[in-house]
Amino acid sequence: MNNYLKHTPVKILSKTWESPDTVTFKVDWQVQHDPGQFVNISIPGKGESPISFCSWNPDYCEFNVRVVGNVTEAISELEPGGTMHVRGPYGRGYPMRCFKGNHLLFIGGGCGVAPLKGIIEYVQHHREDFEGADLYFGYRSRDDILFKHLLDAWKSEFFLHVTIDRDAGEFQYSCPTGFVTEAIKHAQIDPNGKIVFLCGPPVMMDKTIPLLLEKGFHEDQLWVSAERHMKCCTGKCGHCMINGKYACKDGPVFRYDEIKGVTE
Ligand SMILES: Cc1cc2nc3c(=O)[nH]c(=O)nc-3n(C[C@H](O)[C@H](O)[C@H](O)COP(=O)(O)OP(=O)(O)OC[C@H]3O[C@@H](n4cnc5c(N)ncnc54)[C@H](O)[C@@H]3O)c2cc1C
Ligand code: FES
Question: Which of 39, 239, 242, 250 to mutate to test the pocket of ligand 2 (most atoms within 8 A of CB)?
Answer without folding.
Answer: 239
